[in-house]
Amino acid sequence: MSWRIGVLHRTAFTYGAPVLESYNEARMTPISSGGQQTLEARLDVNPAVRPLRYVDYWGTVVHAFDVHVPHTELTVTATSIVETTAASPQVADVGWRAMTDEPIRDRFTEYLLPSPFVLAEPELVPVAEDLAARYGPAEAGRAAAAWARDQLVYTKGATGVRTTSAEARELGKGVCQDYAHLTIALTRAMGLPSRYVSGYLSHDHQTTVEETTSGESHAWVEYWAGAWLPVDPTSLDEVAQRHIVVARGRDYADVRPLSGVYHGPHSGPVRVTVELTRLR
Predict the structure, then answer these.
(1) Co-location of 139 and 16 in the same domain
(2) Of 72, 98, 103, 124, which has the fewest Cβ atoms less than 10 A away?
(3) Phi, psi (rounded to 5 degrees) for 239
(4) CATH code at 157?
(5) 213 and 194, same structural domain?
């Protein structure tokens, strides 16, 4: 069964004095991949500019734009319509020996090495060895997500966008970004290529068609065990129609929804709005 979902994601900045110029990249457009198809997508910027659209190294749609007029507000609004299905990857019957083959490790090197927010921790090695001894690669990835979920208490505001997997584990608190980073740290310690997925989590199954609900960005994980397998360590729910993929990368550093630099004063609180409407 497929879902059709309308997405509105708006980010607004307000400055105490005019900003003279800014240079930005937005990763706010869902991609077409696997069980997901983006039917419509648009990015609007105020002050008005014409963004340059391209696909980055990781396969994410990026809109790059510069603003060269003085402004005290910057608003970026991404709207899209996405069709999602519950894709079931066909998993090849691979074991740990295949995961250590040189062609595999060469192919996925970037998803096996530490990255800015996913650190190599000696403390995770015994856990990784135990899970690898008890499970095959596909099952071990799911077990790693369950382990990460047990280590953290979901707590908004306890961590920030620059919190590493090690810092979140030591704190014992975090949000979806931290659950994903900690899972990736453990799966990479087992030798499973793993990547961070950023997107949205839509309504529960009781939501009616044409109902709009407020939401927020969400993060989960995909690991390779003969095929890319998704897992959501925050809830351990199945990754299916409710998950909308926007970006993939090594960790959050590769998928920031909006990033850039500007010449001017510090901004006030950033206002982010996400609205999701189930259309079918």
Answers:
(1) no
(2) 103
(3) -85, 110
(4) 3.10.620.30
(5) yes
Q: Do 50 and 151 have their domain in common?
A: no
Q: What is the pLDDT of residue 207?
A: 62
- Rounded to a whole number of angstroms, the CA Rg of the chain reads 19
Confidence tier at 93 by pLDDT (50, 70, 90) = low
pLDDT at 91 > cutoff 80: no
Residues 107 and 124 in one domain: yes
171 to each of 123, 124, 163, 184, how far by Cα in Å?
15, 15, 10, 17
The reply to whether 218 and 120 lie within a common domain is: yes
Residues 64 and 180 in one domain: no
pLDDT bin (cut points 50, 70, 90) of residue 215 is confident
Task: State residue 92's pLDDT score.
Answer: 65
42 pairs with which residues across the strands?
Answer: 79
Please answer whether residues 78 and 40 qualify as being in contact, where contact means their C-beta atoms are separated by less than 8 angstroms.
no
Structural domain contains residue 91: no
Q: What is the mean pLDDT of the chain?
A: 94
Could you tell me the pTM of the whole model? 0.95
Q: Cβ distance 157 to 215 under 8 Å?
A: no
Question: For residue 279, which of 186, 207, 226 has the smallest C-alpha distance?
Answer: 207
By the 8 A CB rule, do 38 and 79 touch? Answer: no
